[in-house]
Amino acid sequence: MITNAEIASLLGELARLTILEEGSPQAFRVRAYEAAARAVEGLDEPLAAKSEAEIAALRGLGRGTARKVRELVETGRIAHLDRLRATFPPSFQELTGVPGVGPKRALALRDHLGIRSVEDLRSALDAGAVRTVPGFGARTEENLARAVARLGAGGKERRTPIGAALRLAGDVAAALASVPGVTRAEAMGSLRRFRETVGDVDVVAVVEGDPGPVMARFVALPMAVEVIAHGPAKSAILTSAGIQVDLRVVEPQQYGSAALYFTGSKAHNIRLRQRAIERGWTLSEYGLVEAASGRVLASATEEEIYAALGLQWVPPELREDAGEVESAAAGGLPRLIEPADLRGDLHVHTDLSGDGREPLEVMVAAAAARGYEYLGITDHGEDLASNGVGREGMLAQRSRLEGLRERYPGMALLHGVELNIGPGGSVDYDPEFLAGFDWAVAGVHTHFDLDREAQMRRILTAMRNPAVRAIAHPTGRIIGRRAGIDFDLEAVLAGAEETGTALEINGSLDRLDAPVEMLRACRDRRVVLLIGTDAHHPRELGNVAWGVSHARRGWVEPARVANTWPRERFLEWAASGR
DNA sequence: GCCGTTTTCGGCCCGACTGTTTTCAGTCG
Question: How far apart are CA A226 and CA A219, in angstroms?
Fold first, then answer.
């Protein structure tokens, strides 16, 4: 059966192609398809099982989309989408990936010069033909030539994994904050919303007085290899890593509206502006303004702007127009999990695993310093080719851990293991040896390319293994590098509910796995979650902050996460079923 | 294409910048 994610993806493609058909990304049909795609993403129940009337009754979906969804479910195709695909093949769509080329110019280039690909555009630019197209001049031709020449470095579509972007944003913000007059410098945009990948890094700096010095410092940063724009309130640089950083300087009294605007998402902001319009106001990065009088109603803080619009303050991680505006209007936003809720870490490596960096004693001391009530040490099981630990190694570690228990009476020390789920669902060691562990997570580390059915069989088999308490990094993805295994979301959630196996939220910035869609789908289900750091070094115990931010994107409240539970309750749960 | 506590028709988000313009279109975030 076709999944909601697949339907949403096709609706998104419909939106992108309709931009070309309409010649505008603001066209109402485009926005309707985009809204429909978001609505489908946020649904808990499979759309494919619903009738046309039921689909049309859903918020954001109407008769047109309902008919297309039914057509898709019944025939496997959407005729309208097929027509659009034929009219605008992928090579033509790539034209709008050139900075400076939107739908109108792409269509004008096609109609006047027969340009149907970036290669065609390159040739036309070389021949000096582009300036002959109405609305195009010599300057535009020059700019396009530069844009096409730079395409190799990544066009508009290039996205950076969050890990690299966070480090860069931290460096930039710290440098700017040290400039006199700067009272705050913070990353906004998709980074603040904690998206897994970001298109660029947006930084807002609050400056009292002259913005000149902070701008000068910004464009002279050591990581800047090119200054893309340099203005009094707005500049942009390209860094050595190929990531664009935009800086906006604002006055203190506009911090709230600027933060709101630059954090986005675009869809969330549009919803807020609609609410403003309903009340006779306008909302922009400069403030919430009464349209008739021009009087500023709110601008200094996000809180006062949300409050004026009759909304609870919405945590940045939720700002995707995925139901958060409705919840905020009803006062029903969830109390999202916070770092302070966590009482233990259950996915921690030592130097016994080849990839761990510090001995057991150091890792345990670092966990104790964080005030944890329980800790699971989970080095790799023996099946992992390079870093696995044999039986003798595990038994020796168990004795050493035993010896540490006296020193940490406040922290329960669990001797655990990170098992490897084989292609058929088997795990390391044998049942007797496995029974000697206090705790075990199991994850996929090999055979990423089996088909969906085989992947589901192996995950469900591992879940039914009495030794396995949690599935570590459920999809096995590496952000920006590896897609992760093919998944049947419903099967995994049902398996987790049935067996009581927890799904890990892996806090490593390379993973952030389980993905957000999986976490959202867990709402209103009896799936136990767990936030693990996968720490290979004491400082990586701090990955818990990333796991929490990621969980917040998935609307996760603390009660659903096992390692927020008090020690006794957690230990009882950890020991059950084994 | 979707939606409705003024509407089943007539609306649908904001501002800056750039370049080609003689009053505005297109792109971007």
Answer: 8
